[in-house]
Amino acid sequence: MTQFISLNLVSAAIAFFLDDIFGDPRTGLHPVVLMGRINRFLEKYLYRSGFAGGMLLTVLSAMFWTGLGAALLYFAYGFHIYAFVLLNSVIIYTAVSAKSMKQHAMKVYEPLAGGDLPSARRELSMIVSRDTENMDGAAVVKSAVESVSENYTDGVLSPLFFSVFGGGAGALFFKAASTLDSMIGYRNEKYVSFGKFAARLDDVLNFIPARLSVVIIALSAPFCGMSMKNTLKTVLKYRLAHDSPNSAHSMSAFAGAMSLRLGGPVSYFGKVKDKPFIGEGTGEPEPERIKEAVRLFETAAVFAVALCVAVYFVLRYYGGCPLCA
């Protein structure tokens, strides 16, 4: 088991390096794209079964992608250990979305900083499910920062967590569940029943990573000129201020580190949802706060990878890495 984790740690570090260079590959063969297409196809036949149909879709998707990843890695390992590491790294890379999140956030920042609010709203709509048409500049900034903070868990830490303990197969398992949650995990009239199982599974899978994110964001804050103390203080007060058992952890960590108030009423599908505020910042947030959030996101991502590298060398020291034999 120690050797398996060692290989996964190496693969995870390589995967993040690949993501930093290439970002999300623009191809229809990307696993997430294929997941989405297959999910929509099966939804047509399973939707009428309500909760049971949604549960079956979630289980089928998770089993298929996990099994496919495990089978490919099994054959790669049988061929050569380096083939395993290479394939493992590539699979994990497809589950990570650090660079794409930074790019999307900056696409919101650039027109907003230039005074082009309509374009900023349009770019924001690419990364959030809330209504953006009537947002003012401050709401756009807060929404972008919230998206960055939540995606630190969904797009960085959770894929990393499951890849360390399950390799590429574990990363695909998480991504299958996460993709379905983003597609059907809504509490609206259409998906409140059909998407409930996918949403609850996503909550369970993100439970530990969301709490780990607090520690890593707090440790990263001083490297961005932000306060570790205020990060932890804000998390302790606001970590449960969200319908999701996980989202407020990374969000409150960002709010505390940046001394920014997030949350508040938001419109989804034409209906305003009165969400609680998170954080105690004052004043209207300026566009530059998006850049600050991206910097904190990037620093925390590097910190997480550095932690993987550190654990790898500990295992190497104790003779648990077959690459070093």
TrEMBL record:
The chain crosses the membrane at residues 45-65, 71-96, 296-315. Pfam families: CobD_Cbib. GO terms for biological process: cobalamin biosynthetic process. Pathway: Cofactor biosynthesis; adenosylcobalamin biosynthesis. InterPro entries: Cobalamin_biosynth_CobD/CbiB. It is a multi-pass membrane protein. One of its GO terms (molecular function) is threonine-phosphate decarboxylase activity. Its main location: membrane. It is found in: Cell membrane. Keywords: Cell membrane, Cobalamin biosynthesis, Membrane, Transmembrane, Transmembrane helix. One of its GO terms (cellular component) is plasma membrane. The keyword Repeat does not apply. NCBIfam families: cobal_cbiB. Belongs to the CobD/CbiB family. Converts cobyric acid to cobinamide by the addition of aminopropanol on the F carboxylic group. This is Cobalamin biosynthesis protein CobD. The lineage of its organism: Bacteria, Pseudomonadati, Deferribacterota, Deferribacteres, Deferribacterales.
